[in-house]
Amino acid sequence: MRDQGVVGKGLRVLRQAIREEPGPFAVGVAGAVLHSLVTIGSSFVLGAIVARIAVPAIQEGRVSAGAIALAVAAILAVSALKVSGMIARRLGAGAMQFRLQATYRRRVTRRYLRLPLSWHHKHSTGELLSNANADVEAVWFPIAPFPFAVGTLAMLVVAGVALFVTDWAMALVGLAVFPLVFALNVIYSRRMSPRVTRVQELRADVSTIAHESFDGALVVKTMGRETEETTRFAAKADELRDGLIRVGRIRGAFDPLIDSLPNIGTLAVLVVGTWRMSTGAADIETVTSVVFLFTVLAFPIRAIGWVLGELPRSVVGWERVTKVLSATGDMEYGPRETEGHGTPATLEFRDVTYTYPDGSEVLHSVNLEIPAGRTVALVGPTGSGKSTIASLATRLVDPDDGRVLLDGNDVRELGHGALADNIALVQQVPFVFDDTIGGNITLARDSVDGDDDVWTALRTAQADGFVAKLPDQLDTEVGERGHSLSGGQRQRITLARALAGAPRLLVLDDATSAVDPRVESAILGALKKSKNPASVLVVAYRRATIALADEVVYLEHGKVVATGTHLDLLDNVPGYANLVTAYEREEAERAREGAFIEAEDTEEEEVSA
Amino acid sequence: MTTVDAAVGKEQDGSWQTFKRGLALSPELRTGLAGTLALAVVATVGRIVVPVAIQQGIDRGITAPGGPFPGVVATVALISLGVLAITVCTSYLMNVRLFRVSETALASLRARAFRHVHDLSMLHQQSERRGTLTSRVTTDIDQISQFLQFGGLMLLISGGQVLIATVVMFTYSWKLALVVLVTFLPLIWIVRALQRRLAIAYQASREKVGVMLGTIAETVVGAAVIRAYGVQRRTEERLDGSIEDFRGAQFRALRRSVLSFSSGEITSGICLSGVVIVGVLLGVDDQITIGQLTAFLFLTTLFVQPVQMGTEILNDAQNAIAGWRRVLDVLDTEPDVADPGENGQDLRLGPVAVSFDKVHFAYPGGPEVLSEIDVTIPAQARVAVVGETGSGKTTFAKLLTRLMDPAKGQVLLSGVSLTDLRFASLRRRVVMVPQDGFLFDATVAENVRFAKPELSDAELYLAFTELGLADWVDGLPDGMNTPVGERGEALSVGERQLVALARAYVADPDLLVLDEATSAVDPATEVRLARALDAVTRGRTTVAIAHRLSTAEAADRVLVFDAGRIVQNGPHAELVSQTDSVYAKLHSSWVEQTRST
C-alpha cells in the first residue's frame, strides 16, 4: 500500500522545500523557464533561419551578408540567453538543495542534542549517523532537477499553446505524447519505490557491519577472524548486489521506453504535418519548427522523470528524518536555579527505581544521601547498578519512580544547565573529543577561566606532567576518541575536565581504574586538599579510595544492602567484607599455599617440571 | 596542506590510469563486454534514426517535386518506428547486463577492500577514522557503480553517438562536418583546465564532509558527556560550523561545474552559427540541398548534445574516479605487519616460550617508547608486567602478539621469529585480551562464540562455569542469550571485560596475553577469576599486564617497566625486597591502598 501514495507524499516534500527556500527556488525556476523558453524559441529561430534565409538564398543562388549576420546574431543571442538561464537554474537548484541539506542536518543534530540519553540508547550510532547524513541527502536529491522540471512543465504549457496556435492537428500529437510520458514516469516511480526502499535498508546494513567490524578491528585481528568477518560482510554485500540488480532491471526497462516516446511523437508529427501540408493547412516552415520543437523537448522532459524517479528514495529519507525530528521524550527542565555557589552540594536519592528499556530492573527503591562536603563511596559487585546511580545523579537519565534531590530540589525542577554547573561526572570509560587537550578540558564553558584553571585542574589530576611534555602542550590535538593518548592519560584528561569546572559535587564512576595505584593515591590526596571543596560520590573498589570516604553505601543487585562507615560494614556485612578484603584474603591464601609448598619443597620441583 | 595538494596533483594525471587499474583489479567487469558493447552500438543507432527519418521524409515526401506525399512519409515513419522498437529492446538487454556485471564486480571489490582493511596493521587502522574506513567499502564503491552504470554508459553511448553523428555529417557534407569539428576543438582545452580546478573543489568538499561526519559522530557517541557537562551550545556551534563549511564547499564545487558546462553551451552556439554561415554559402553554391542543410542542423544538435553531456559526465567522473582511487589505494597499501603466508612456518606444538632480543620501538614520528628490551619468558611461565602509566607495558604486549613490529631487534616465540610465523598459526595459538573489551552487537553467547563458532551452548556454559562466571551468566536477564548492545554498551564495563575474557579463554591459546583485562571488575570477582584462570591455563604461558599488584604477587615472575625499559625482572618476593626499587615503591603504594582501614 505504501507505494500507492509515494508520488503524493513526494510532492508534499517538494512543497515543503519550496516553503523553506523560496528565494533559490524562484531563481532556479526563473532560470529554468528562461532556458526552456529560449529552447523553444531556438527551434523557431532555427526554423525561420532555414525557411527565410537558407531556402530563399539557396533557391535564388545568392545570399546577403546582412542576412547571414542576422542569422548568426540570432543564434548567438539564443545561446547567451540559454547559458544565463542555465546558470541561474543550476545555481538556484544547487543553493536550494545544499541549504535544505544543511538546514535539516542542523535540525536533526539539534534533536540529537535535546533528546534524552534513553532515546540514544535505543538507536545505534550507525543509524543516527545515516539519519543526519545519507537520509537528509536522500530527501533533497530530487531538488537538483526540481527547478528544471518545473521549468519544463512551463515549457510544455507554452509549447502546447504554441502548437495549438501553429497547427491544431500537430498539437493533438503533443497532447497524446506528453501526458503519456508523465504517466509512464509515475508508473516507474511506483514500481521502483519498494525496491529502492529495500536497497536503502541493505546499504545501511552493509555500512553497519563495516563500521562495527572496523571498530572491533583489534579483536578481529587478535582472534584471527578476518576471514569469518569478510564472509559476514560479503553475504550482506551480495544481498545488496541482488537488490541493486533488481532496481537495475526496472530502470533498464523504463529508461529506453521513456526516452523513445518523444521520438515517436516526432515521427507522428512528421506524418501529420505532411498530411496537413497536402491539404494546404500547413507550410514547410511550420512542420520544420514543430519537428524541431519535439526534438528539443525530448531531453528536458526527462527532468520530470528524474524528479519522479528520485521521489521514492526521498520519501523514505523523509520518513526517517521526520522520525527523529518528531521524536519526543525531551528532558523537561524546570525554572529553578541553584544557590550556594562555592559551597559543597547535598545529593539525595529517595526511593529511586530505574528500569532498562528492555524491562529489566536495575535499581530498586534506592535511598542514599551525600551530605554537603562529605565523601560517599559506592561499593558493589560488578553489574550491581553503580554506574546507573552515577547517571541518575547527573540526570543523564530520570528515575521511573522516586526522586533525586540536589540541595533539597528535585533535579527535574532545575533549569537547563543548572545541574551541569553544580555536578561533574567522570565516567568509567573516558570520552575525549577530537579536539585539543585544552579544548577537551574547558569545553568552552564559561565557568572555566583560561589556561590557569586548566593547568590547576591538570595538576590535581596528575596530568600536568605528560601534557607539559607534549609538543604543543594544551594545543596538542588528541585525534578521534583521543587515540593518540593512552587509556590512563585519557582518564586523567577527563578527570581534569571535571575538576576545571569547580563542581559542587563530583561523581567519580570508577574513574581511576586505568591509573596506577600511586598516581591514583596522588590524585585522591590532591582532591582532599583542593581549595574548592566539593561533595564526592565515588564508585570504588580500592580500599584506599574507600578509606577516604566518610560513608560507604553497599549495593547488591540494585538494592542498597547497607550504609555506614567502612569499619562498620566490614564487621557487619559479609558481602561487603568479602568484596573489599578479596586481595588480602587472596594474599593470605597464597601465603598459606606458599608455606605448604615450601614445606614440600621437593614435590614442588616435580610439579613445575 | 602539502599532502592534500600532492594528492590533488596526483589525481590530475592519474584519472585514466586509475580507471585502468580499477579494471585490472576487477576483471569481472569484462564479463560479456563484447555482447554488451554490441547491444550498445545497436542502442545508439536508435538515437540517429529520427534525424535520418526527418531528412528522408522532408527530401522524399515533402519537398520532392509534386509533393507532399503523405504515404511516403508514413512509410518512412513506420520503418523508423520498427527500428526504434528494436533499439528499445536492445537498450533494455544492455542495461540489464551492465547492472548485473557491474554490481557483481563491485560486490566482490567491496569484500576484497573490506578484507584488506582488516589485513592492515593496527597502527595503520588507527591512523584512519572509523568512518573513513567504512566509506571505502560503502559510499566510495557506490560512486563507482553510479559512474559505471550511468556516467560510464552515457559516456560510451555519447561517444558512439558523436562518432555516428560525425560519420553521417561527413557523408552529408565533409565541409560542414569540418566546421563542426573545428569549433569544438578549443573546448577540449577549456574543459581540461576547468576540470583541474573542479577536482580541487571536489577534494575540498570531500574533506569537509569528513569533518562534518566526525563532528556528528562525536555528538552521538559523546552524548552522555555533552549532557553531563551541559555543553550543548558548544557542540551546536561545532556542528553548525562543520555543516556550513560543507555546504559552502559543495556550492563552490557546483559553481565550477556550471562554468564548465556553460562553456559547452556557448561552443554549441558558435558551432551552429558556423554551420548556418557555411551551409547557406554551400547551398548557394549548389553543393547541398535544403533537406540536407536541415538534416545537418539536426545532426549538429545530435553532435552537440552528447558532447555537452560528456563534459557533464566528466565532472561526475572526477568524483567517481577519486572514489575508485581511494578504494584502490587501500588495496594497494601493503600491510606493514604482513602475514608471511606460504613462506612462513607454523608455531611448534606445545607450550610457547617468548624471547625479546634487544627490541626497540617508537611510534611513527614519536620518541622511542621501548628501549633495549632483552628478556626471555620460559614456556608455561606466568608472568606479570607492571609499571607506571606510559612506561611501555601495552606496547610490549602489542609487540608480543605481533600487532606491531619492532623498530629494531626481534621477538621470538619458541625460537622462531614472529615475522616468520603464519598468521593462521599465530592467531590460533596466541591470544590477547585488550584493555577495552570490544563486543559485537549480538548476544553474550555469540560474542564468546566469535572465537570458536563451533561451540555448543553447553560447551559455552561450561566455559563460563570453569571461569567461575556461571553465577553471573545466570543473573543476566536472558542468560547467555542476553544481547550486549552496540559495542557491548548494554553491559557494564566490568561485565564487558568478563565476556571478552571468556571469549579469549574458549579460543584455547597456548600463550595468553592479558592487557589489564579485568581492570573494571570488582575485587572479589577478579580474585575468583584469577584463581580460575590460573587453574585452567596451567601448563600454558600467560603474560598479564596488571595495575592491581595482586596479579603480580601470584605470578611466577614479574617484569617491571620504567620509562620504556625493563628495570626489574624476577619473582615478586625477590623484587619487593629490593628496597627503593621501582617495584618496591609500586608495591608499598598498592599495600597502602588495599590495606588501609
Automatic annotation (TrEMBL), chain A:
Family: Belongs to the ABC transporter superfamily. Lipid exporter (TC 3.A.1.106) family.
Pfam families (alphabetical): ABC_membrane (PF00664), ABC_tran (PF00005)
Native source organism of the sequence: Phytomonospora endophytica
Gene3D superfamilies: ABC transporter type 1, transmembrane domain, P-loop containing nucleotide triphosphate hydrolases
Subcellular location: Cell membrane
GO-annotated molecular function: ABC-type oligopeptide transporter activity; ATP binding; ATP hydrolysis activity
Bilayer topology annotation: Multi-pass membrane protein
Annotated ranges, domain ABC transporter: 347-582
Presence of the UniProt keyword Transmembrane helix in the record: yes
InterPro entries attached to this UniProt entry: AAA+_ATPase, ABC1_TM_dom, ABC1_TM_sf, ABC_transporter-like_ATP-bd, ABC_transporter-like_CS, P-loop_NTPase, Type_1_exporter
Name of the featured protein: ABC-type multidrug transport system fused ATPase/permease subunit
GO cellular component: plasma membrane
Annotated TM spans: 25-51, 63-81, 139-162, 168-188, 287-308
UniProt entry keywords in alphabetical sequence: ATP-binding, Cell membrane, Membrane, Nucleotide-binding, Transmembrane, Transmembrane helix, Transport
Domain ABC transmembrane type-1 intervals: 26-313
Automatic annotation (TrEMBL), chain B:
One Gene Ontology term of the molecular function aspect: ATP binding
A GO cellular component annotation in the UniProt record: plasma membrane
Domain of life: Bacteria
Chain segments annotated as transmembrane: 29-49, 69-93, 150-170, 176-194
Record's keyword annotation contains Disulfide bond: no
Location within or outside the cell: Cell membrane
UniProt KW keywords: ATP-binding, Cell inner membrane, Cell membrane, Membrane, Nucleotide-binding, Transmembrane, Transmembrane helix, Transport
InterPro entries to which the protein is assigned, alphabetical: AAA+_ATPase, ABC1_TM_dom, ABC1_TM_sf, ABC_transporter-like_ATP-bd, ABC_transporter-like_CS, P-loop_NTPase, Type_1_exporter
PROSITE patterns membership: ABC_TM1F (PS50929), ABC_TRANSPORTER_1 (PS00211), ABC_TRANSPORTER_2 (PS50893)
Domain spans labelled ABC transmembrane type-1: 34-319
Any single Pfam family the record assigns to this protein: ABC_membrane
Lipid bilayer topology: Multi-pass membrane protein
Chain ranges of the ABC transporter domain: 354-588
Name under which the protein is recorded: ABC-type multidrug transport system fused ATPase/permease subunit
Biological source species: Phytomonospora endophytica
Lineage: Bacteria, Bacillati, Actinomycetota, Actinomycetes, Micromonosporales
